Amino acid sequence: MSCKPQSPSELSEMISDLNRVAHNLWWTWNQGAQEIFHDLSPRSWQNLYHNAVAILHEVSDYELRVRLQDPEFCCRVRQVITDFNAYMSDKETWGRHNAEQLLKNPVAYFSAEFGFHETLPIAAGGLGILAGDHTKSASDLDIGFVGISLFYREGYFQQQINQDNWQTEYYTLLNPKSLPMEPVVDPKGEPLVCMVEIDLTDVYFQVWRVNVGRCVVYLLDSNRPENAQHHRDLTRRVYGGDTSMRIMQEILLGIGGVRLLRALGIEPSVFHMNEGHAAFLTLELIREKQASGISLAEAMARTKQECIFTTHTPVEAGHDRFGRDLMAYALMKMANQLRLTIDELMGLGRVNPKDNHELFCMTVLGLKLSRAANAVSELHGQVSRQMWHVLWPECSVEEVPIGHITNGIHLMGWMKGPVRRFWQRRLNASQEKNQESVNPPASETTSCCKNKPERQLEKEANTIEFWQKVADPGFVSDEELWALRYKLRRELIEFARRRLLIQGQRLSQSDFIAFDQLLNPDALTIGFARRFATYKRAPLIFDQFENVIKLVSDRQRPVQFVFSGKAHPRDDEGKRYIQRIIHLSKFSELKGRLVFIENYDVHIARQMVSGCDVWLNNPRRPLEASGTSGQKAGCHGCLNMSIMDGWWREGYDGTNGFAIGGDSHPDFVEEQDRMDSENLFKTLTSEVIPSFFNRDAQGIPRQWIQKIRRAIVTLVPQYNTWRMVQDYATKYYLKK
Ligand SMILES: *Cc1c(COP(=O)(O)O)cnc(C)c1O
Fold this sequence. Notes:
The chain is an alpha/beta fold. The chain folds into 3 domains: about 1-90, no CATH class; about 105-410 and about 725-735, Glycogen Phosphorylase B (Rossmann fold, 3-Layer(aba) Sandwich), CATH 3.40.50; about 480-720, Rossmann fold (3-Layer(aba) Sandwich), CATH 3.40.50.2000. It has 31 helices and 20 strands. Strands 1, 2, 5, 6, 7, 8, 9, 10, 13 and 14 form a 10-stranded mixed beta sheet that branches. The model is unreliable at about 440-445 (pLDDT under 50). The chain binds pyridoxal-5'-phosphate.
């Protein structure tokens, strides 16, 4: 078979297939596909921030046809298209064997944010990233799954640091035409328009479809000419505005989402509320049943059987609460339709329905109207049962019906390109070795495409057996692992220098920082990146400033820090944290050994979790329900150093990373902060640094690499969404 296309029509077909690939986020976790879009125009790939759809707009049809005359390139394109089609039509899937009923009646998964990729910045943080990773694994497993969210046309804010090292926010308008999304249309080809009532007004919305492998996520968009401006702006920004904006967004998400599913003829077997934002969907489900003549009590009971709820945080501000006036105003029509007084409606979101002072809490509504609920780690399960015991006073705390499924990450979406190739090569080598013992070495393959399909690693990467091989030095040697660590650290440093140069140029500060001397490729590199919510205590390590200075000034055992993260626009405390860290990076002895990369997003996250040696996590226990960024570190050989909170409390086994403090915490936060910063330092100086710099005659830190092996073997196959979505399916989605 020749790789050159045979005819112009075949070329046209390839180009149309390539467009199909660009419009399915599958390409964001397929290396071959990403390389094709990159190679079409490497510079644009960078400038357009890795946007496949925009690349295909950038490259003319003629140019594409000419490029496809190159047999090697054409062959790779063909391979990607073949892989994509094979992925989409695969029938031998976990879902078909284990969750067939969901393929007919899918899971409807409602989330106020979804984080898929840097080009579609409609997530504020971990909650959205988790929803995106959940979707990708639902697709890989072939679970019937539809996502529901909003299309925020200005997304989440972009962060810029000003002259005073203060975070400023700006917004860019997202253009659906150059994003992997398509308008949902009715049978006549017109945009499908649905409606929700907010106060006395009918608010219309249109819908965008995002393809995520085999799954679809629908994004509701109220930016319609029929609507008043303030209603059009409901879908402007992620969590933008005050509580009245918030309640209206949540009405659109919950109630609008159910109406959309009805309009599309999708009959979910279960409604999954990812956090309280979506809990109004229960009101719509009750209303529908009442409208068909079912009593309120029965409608509520049946609705409860259709819903499950996941709570994501013990932090008070993470639970939306609305006052009576706002509820009465926003949901007046809904209350009428439900034939409820406002006080009865309020009761659905109150712990004590009769308490007129209690606000309406979305979490309470979600918990009351779901057949099952879960927290996102074992410890968070305990904390949540304690926290919501008031709703089940007749039970003991242990009996409170909130279970847990520990969060994970979508491995192939997070694994950096060079690391995929690294593991794929090890896999190929081990298979060849096995074959050699049976057959003579396989002769050069005759097919035009010599690349082994990537799907092999994709399949293997989700098995315990594959990662167990990493314990074996015959599968991967210490030297290979250490070389990989150096390569990834170097890539991060180059990325950081480039970003800081751009940051510095904007502030005309390039004169007093030598950007090509920022950071040291031989230094133990400690990373911290996440939302700058105060409970995460980003600057905790600098509480011991004198000690930090000693560490970074040690020429024999250099240590350095890379930080990144956004504070919520209204969180001045979080912004002060950022300011303090940047100030230290510019004006203290930490200069050149501490950097802050602005505008944290998925791309920065990927650079950091792969390039750092240590991933630092020091939340105020037990407020980090799970945390997921540390889970992204594992497959890259980056080790966690963390407070025993969230997922790390169950992931850490004494050999696979580092613990800060123990499995308890003091009652008073002042004492906790003081103890934790001391413990952080103790771990760093007595375990982390000695182990990293303990090199043998070949210059290899054997002990450190042993920890990397242990981390990979014990954590990677466990803390991923492949395992997590299976848990959701078997424990919660499938009716027993
Ligand atoms: C993974 C990720 C998060 C979540 O990080 P945590 O440590 O769990 O808070 C937040 N933002 C981005 C961009 C991420 O990739």
